Amino acid sequence: MIAEQTSAGPPGGRLFVTVLLLALGLALLVWQVRALEISPADLRAGFSAVGGWFAVILLLSLVRFALRAYAWRVLTDRPLAFRTVLAATIGGDALGNVTPLGLLASEPAKALYLRRVVDPAYALAALTAENFFYSVSVALYVIVATGAMLALFPIGPDVYWAGVTALGGMAVVLAGAAWLAWQRPTIASHVLARVPLPKLSAVVERVRVFERATYGAAGPHRSRLATVGVCEAGFHALSFVECWLTFWLLTGVSSLLPALIFDGFNRVVNVVFKPIPFRLGVEEGGTALLATAIGLPASGGFLLGLVRKVRVIAWAGVGLALWSRRTLHREPAPRTEDPPR
Predict the structure, then answer these.
(1) Could you tell me the pTM of the whole model?
(2) Residue-wise DSSP of 25-91
């Protein structure tokens, strides 16, 4: 069962780990600035080039949040207020970005945000189904971006094999997704049921109910699934537009292919380095190396990652503010519906 309370700040040891990882990421970022010989004037010039367009970048990311929130709302099959689901999505994403727990923090937090209007277990089941479709869309997007890089750019062996590894990993994700969609296994409950502890019987049943609710959220409703597919595709399309716009503002490069490759790389970073808060230092340095590999200025790639990082931090601030407001504004919770059995 999901706990009834959460907080925006990780307690105890998690706080220490978070601060440590942030410090290491910041140190890596400073080292990259020096290694690439990027001066404070270069940083100011980069952000000045973006200027008022940063508001457009924020708007694009807001619409992306809205698309995933709408997909989640569709899968809950409940008449939930969209603004509340959107706030839950932004708030949960913030917690996932500021702590090393990643999805273990963000997804339960999103469900808990809705606890006054729907059973958190059912909200989390629908969110799990949405994450399934999102994962499939990410795998397809990375395959397209990586395939374009391998086919159209003369890259070195290190980047080549990194790309091949990414393709292999995404192929495994798609194969696993296909198996789950076909078999719909209740893996977790079956594993727990084999543990010889009588006290686990109630837990096993709750897990089994949750798994069934997850598959029920995906359901055999073609129109619902089509809507979710459109939302996920729109999420990636707007991310590509944002990446292209930012890189064009920073460097004047108007070609679409670099933006596709950088954006695909961003998805890989988000998956592999999720435990690092904000992926600080990783995305910026990785984008700089990738820019060099495809024949573009490393400084442009670094600044692209940095501007996008500022965007993530800005929305994390909004998300934490939403969580603080939700936590402080305590009111009697209405009776919620139980997940279907």
Answers:
(1) 0.86
(2) HHHHHHHHHHHTT--HHHHHHHHHHHTTHHHHHHHHHHHHHHHHHHHHHHHHTS---HHHHHHHHHH
